[in-house]
Amino acid sequence: MALLGISDLRDDLEFGAKVTGLTRSALEDACVRSNLKHLLEDRGVIVFKGLEQTSEMQVRLSEVFGPLKEHPVKSVDRADRDNLPGVIVIAVGPGSGIVEIDGKPLVTWQPWHFDHAYNDELMYAAVLRSIKIAKDGGRTAFADGIQIYNDMSPEMREAAESLNVLYNLDLRYDRQRFGLPQNFRLVKNHASSMSADNENARCAVHPAVWERPTGEKVFHMCGYGCRGLEGDRSDAAFERLAEVWDEAERAMKPYFHEWEEGDMVVWDNLRVLHTATGSNPEEPREVHRTTIKGDYGLGRWEQETRESETV
Prior knowledge:
Elements: E1 5-8, E2 17-20, H1 30-43, E3 45-49, H2 55-65, E4 87-91, E5 98-101, E6 104-113, E7 125-132, E8 140-144, H3 145-151, H4 154-161, E9 164-167, E10 184-188, E11 204-207, E12 209-211, E13 217-219, E14 226-229, H5 235-251, E15 255-257, E16 264-268, E17 272-279, E18 286-292, E19 300-301, H6 302-310
Parallel strand pairs: 2-3
Antiparallel strand pairs: 1-2, 3-16, 4-18, 5-6, 5-10, 6-17, 7-16, 7-18, 8-15, 8-17, 9-11, 9-14, 11-19, 12-13
């Protein structure tokens, strides 16, 4: 069996692992694949260093953790629609949104979130590979929902456990009611049909806290695409959500990944929140992401809930 180097991301973190020495041939070893799968289940995030930087390697690594899933939004750019299902492209382009934080303009910035919140079915995990690394910014950060829940105040943990949160694909920042930095300013919305066309689209419902089969409770909520609470879209609902989020952000102990050549990162989307810190609009930046099937079975469409209540 291939010998891999496995270490903690940081000594002070309760999640995450770093892996070195993984090769394409090592991925053929059933024991290696099994160990990597269990490592992700245990640690939530794995940073792979020194990997072969090809799409084929990214897909083969992704398939260790489950089958690939096509992104549910058809308009999202694909790396190769015919031969690489599930590989999407995140890149700076003429339609990129621009935000300003502390007076600094940024592109490809995203707030804390989990992927596919706008869908009734989530995804288990994703793998990122940086194709063009920005010199100024461009970090990706991760925060463990288990750690967040454990370090929140008992009162806010209890409050979060009662929340069923609504999300849809209206991802415009000027529609986001909480979870943005205080020093945030929108310069230009992203030119995407994932936003304005979905302002009144039906919402998915997801719990703010859920329990893993292994018994840990996970804080799993964000302001990105949030439309309120199930049955309540009032200002008071957003005040409740903002109060819980502020406590979660206070408790959060994130890991910020500085991209280097040879890196790939996989994270458990059912457990871990992530954010993109943005980069200089004048610099090229491109990331390829694979989407891996798997769900926790707790999401549903809001309309389905309403229909079941009238039967």
